[in-house]
């Protein structure tokens, strides 16, 4: 039996289960514990992946029935109070077992609706990107671009923030990023220059194959960031670096992807 973290208290059971186990849509068996818990607990109280049972803080079909149909008001006022309480609890368990298939059927239907909504939202994103940004997310092969392309609908509030780009690169490559700002000029005349920024990705111990593949992906990612996220008048460079310990002059030197030759 798995418990749900308190940070997920505002997520509905359908959204959570559809995200975690989309392939088990029609196999879950639900137990409604009542809305008394909802003010203090999360929607999903617990679930069991093996038995496909989920306990939620909701009322079921049993709650819809008038109370007078189930119990009489003066039952507990008569003699043998304890026996009457046990009898009522037994009836309640039987009624819950009787209505559980109806609760389960309703929950599975809501799961199906949640899946359809998720699929529609996914198709909506692809439609928005293709129609308004002329970008085909489904045809994209670069794994890094696919991670940040869903941010394009909000690009009007994100464009031009080089610190955001630095954090995005750090998150995408899971590494430290050093950002260096300066000036750039194509001529020796320093009167005509444009601002520049260089992002150095500190990634250690890459093999030759890993470096070539990452550099190839970085070319497309750099062009994408320059088109959508970076200012158009900014000279930008993204490089893979490794600031390791400098070797002693007496040691043999082997050039790697971090080596630089100065004239």
Give the SSE order as H and E letters.
Answer: EHEEEHHHHHEEHE
Question: Which residue ranges are poorly predicted, with pLDDT under 50 across at least 5 consecutive positions?
Answer: none
Shape annotation: elongated
Extended strand count: 7
Helix content: 40-55%
Rg over alpha carbons: 30 Å
Describe the structure in brief:
With 263 residues, the chain is α/β, with parallel strands linked by helices. The protein has helices at 13-20, 67-70, 81-132, 143-148, 155-158, 162-173, 208-228, and strands at 2-3, 29-32, 44-48, 53-56, 176-184, 194-202, 235-241.
Give a topology summary.
Layout: E1 2-3, H1 13-20, E2 29-32, E3 44-48, E4 53-56, H2 67-70, H3 81-132, H4 143-148, H5 155-158, H6 162-173, E5 176-184, E6 194-202, H7 208-228, E7 235-241
Parallel strand pairs: 2-4, 6-7
Antiparallel strand pairs: 1-3, 3-4, 5-6
């Amino acid at each position: 039996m798995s418990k749900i973290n308190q940070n997920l208290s505002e997520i509905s059971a359908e959204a959570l289960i559809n995200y975690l186990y989309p392939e088990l849509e029609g196999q879950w068996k639900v137990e409604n514990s009542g809305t008394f818990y909802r003010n203090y607990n999360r929607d999903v109280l617990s679930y069991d992946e093996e038995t496909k049972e989920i306990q939620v803080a909701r009322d079921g079909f049993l709650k819809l029935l008038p109370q007078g149909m189930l119990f009489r008001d003066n039952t507990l006022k008569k003699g043998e109070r304890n026996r009457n309480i046990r009898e009522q609890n037994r009836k309640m368990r039987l009624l819950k077992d009787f209505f559980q298939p109806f609760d389960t059927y309703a929950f599975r239907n809501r799961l199906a609706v949640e899946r359809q909504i998720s699929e529609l939202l996914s198709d909506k994103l692809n439609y928005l990107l293709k129609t308004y940004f002329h970008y085909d997310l489904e045809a994209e092969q670069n794994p890094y671009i696919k991670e940040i392309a869903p941010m394009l609908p909000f690009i009007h509030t994100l464009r031009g923030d080089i610190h955001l780009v630095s954090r995005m690169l750090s998150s995408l490559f899971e590494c430290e990023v050093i950002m260096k700002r300066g000036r750039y000029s194509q001529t020796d005349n320093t009167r005509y220059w444009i601002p520049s920024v260089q992002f150095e990705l500190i990634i250690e111990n890459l093999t030759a194959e890993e470096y070539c593949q990452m550099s190839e992906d970085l070319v497309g990612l750099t062009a994408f960031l320059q088109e959508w996220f970076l200012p158009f008048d900014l000279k930008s460079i993204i490089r893979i670096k490794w600031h390791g310990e400098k070797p002693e002059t007496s040691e043999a030197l082997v050039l790697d992807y971090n080596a630089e030759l100065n004239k």
